[in-house]
Amino acid sequence: MRTLRYAINVTLDGCVDHRAGTGDEEIHRHAADSIGRAGGLLFGRVTYEMMESAWRLPAEPTEEPEPFARTIHEARKHVVSRTLSSVGWNAELVQGDLATAVRALKEAPGGELLTGGVTLPAALAELGLLDVVELVVLPRVAGHGPRLLEGLSTPLDLRLVDREELGNGAVAERYEVRRTGRR
């Protein structure tokens, strides 16, 4: 079964609003490596549309794209949406019951699945479908914004399995979700 990994940048006070963080070259390189390890991306509509508008390459690029743009552009994408009727950008629409659809994706062949964003990962955590949580903890206090997996009905217990200090002061942390039988 494929692993479902949630990766996101988060400030020290738990804010996951992409506008509250820093997007320097090292953060983009780390994100490109993370996406490059995935067999597919699983996005909600909002994250998909935000990423597509920011990173979709033109049909005939005039210059060599940066590694993050190239990596996300080429990645296979699965988009969860009740409102979209079609998607492009190397993507397929995921519809129907979320738990059933995501379990089917996890059982399909291929490398691990990577999700990001705010709303979809919280729903996936609530359903007990996340296997790994990867955070890049930014050395910043935002003082506002949506919080990491805000609104869970029960705690999500994690076990730290890797930690890397980045040169810009951020810390990349990888956690495995502990299965307690409660979800």
Short characterization:
The chain has 183 residues and is α/β, with parallel strands linked by helices.
Please provide a written account of the structure.
The model has no long low-confidence stretch (mean pLDDT 93). It is built from five helices and eight strands; from the N terminus they run βαβααββαβαβββ. The protein is α/β, with parallel strands linked by helices and 183 residues long. The longest helix has 12 residues, at 25-36. It is globular and about 40 Å long. Strands 4-3-2-5-1-6-8-7 form an eight-stranded mixed beta sheet, with helices on both faces. Helices cover 27% and strands 25% of the residues.
Q: How many strands, which pairing sense, and closed or not: the largest β-sheet?
A: 8 strands, mixed
Radius of gyration, whole Å: 16 Å
User: What number is the mean pLDDT?
Assistant: 93
What general outline do the C-alpha atoms trace? globular
For the largest sheet, list the strands in their spatial order: 4-3-2-5-1-6-8-7
The residue ranges in which pLDDT falls below 50 over 5 or more consecutive positions are: none
* Total number of beta strands: 8
Question: Could you say which structural class the secondary elements and strand pairing correspond to?
Answer: alpha/beta
* Spatial gap, N to C terminus: 18 Å
Helix and strand pattern: EHEHHEEHEHEEE
Q: How much of the sequence is in beta strands?
A: 25-35%
Portion of residues in helices? Answer: 25-40%
Q: What is the overall number of helices?
A: 5
Give a quick set of tags describing it.
single chain, 183 residues, alpha/beta, 8-stranded mixed sheet, 5 helices, 27% helix, 25% strand
